[in-house]
């Protein structure tokens, strides 16, 4: 199994581990209930470095991600994030993901851990341009701060910018403890929070900088167990559990992320038929 750059930090905290998507990940540190409640009332610190990241650069990058995405990438401006789906020709969901727009010729895709290889092959198979697609998952770590105290915790680490002014589903480039990061106002808990993308070599330094502040704020490090209960409580879907290649967006309540007007994308024809004829599975 793969391990994140923070594996030793989790061992030091006596985390209980589990296998997830081919990764050895912390399931819990104290208890799932305690960690869940910490996020709802204070703040939680998550290692999400098992997630996959692809960089897409070059002339035609916008057209490539637009062709792959059920949601309308054309709505994005620089510094914005879009939740979307990749669907196959029959309307089945290849994956759900986030698309980050750095510029018209530069995007970052964040995909589910278990689908990294599948998704990268899918993107490459439909890249008929000179656009460069690079899997940077192993070079990238992802640490999340989630909970009502997350803004106040992050503020002192980013004095040059008021992080409370970063709107939901927007991101900025910044530094925490001298470490260059992407600060994203996103999350998978239903709470206020941030997801921080950092070079894998700096992950432990970033974790160690944030951890004392989290604990001082009555927060907790949070494993995948509470992450799952938090997302369930928030009504968020999990690929492989709630959807797969054989389910379409309308069957899992994600039809609002299919934007078909005045644009073409993979699976559009099948999805229009499914929307018209109604659901077969639920």
The gist of it:
The glycine cleavage system is composed of four proteins: P, T, L and H. The chain is of the alpha+beta class and 282 residues long. Helices cover 26% and strands 28% of the residues.
Describe the structure.
By secondary structure, the chain is of the alpha+beta class. It folds into two domains: 7-50 and 141-165 and 177-233, Gyrase A, domain 2 (2-Layer Sandwich); 53-136 and 251-277, Alpha-Beta Plaits (2-Layer Sandwich), CATH 3.30.70. The protein contains eight helices and 13 strands. The chain has helices spanning 7-12, 32-41, 61-68, 116-125, 150-154, 203-216, 224-233, 268-277, and strands spanning 16-20, 23-28, 44-47, 52-57, 80-87, 93-103, 106-111, 132-135, 140-146, 171-176, 179-184, 193-199, 220-222. A six-stranded mixed sheet has the order 10-11-12-9-3-13, with helices on both faces. β5 and β6 form a beta hairpin. α2 crosses α7 (224-233). It is globular. The relative contact order is 0.20. The model has no long low-confidence stretch (mean pLDDT 97).
């Amino acid at each position: 199994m793969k391990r994140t750059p923070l594996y030793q930090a989790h061992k030091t905290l006596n985390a209980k581990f589990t296998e997830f998507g081919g990764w050895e990940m912390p399931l819990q540190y104290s208890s799932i209930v305690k960690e869940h409640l910490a996020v709802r009332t204070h703040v939680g610190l998550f290692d999400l470095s098992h997630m996959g990241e692809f960089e897409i650069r070059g002339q035609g990058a916008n057209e490539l991600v637009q062709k792959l995405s059920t949601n309308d990438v054309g709505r994005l401006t620089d510094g914005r994030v879009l939740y979307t789906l990749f669907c196959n020709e029959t309307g089945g969901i290849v994956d759900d993901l986030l698309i980050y727009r750095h510029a018209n010729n530069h995007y970052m895709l964040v995909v589910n851990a278990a689908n990294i290889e599948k998704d990268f092959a899918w993107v490459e198979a439909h890249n008929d341009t000179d656009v460069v697609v690079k899997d940077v998952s192993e070079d990238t770590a992802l640490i999340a701060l989630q909970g009502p105290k997350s803004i106040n915790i992050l503020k002192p680490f980013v004095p040059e910018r008021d992080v409370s002014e970063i709107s939901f589903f927007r991101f900025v480039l910044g530094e925490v403890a001298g470490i260059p990061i992407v600060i994203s106002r996103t999350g998978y808990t239903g709470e206020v929070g941030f997801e921080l993308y950092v070079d894998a070599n700096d992950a432990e330094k970033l974790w160690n900088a944030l951890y004392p502040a989290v604990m001082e704020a009555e927060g907790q490090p949070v494993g995948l167990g509470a992450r799952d209960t938090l997302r369930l409580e928030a009504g968020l879907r999990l690929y492989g559990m709630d959807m797969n290649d054989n389910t379409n967006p309308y069957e899992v309540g994600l039809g609002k992320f299919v934007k078909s007007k005045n644009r073409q994308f993979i699976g559009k024809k099948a999805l229009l038929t499914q929307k018209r004829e109604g659901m077969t599975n639920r």
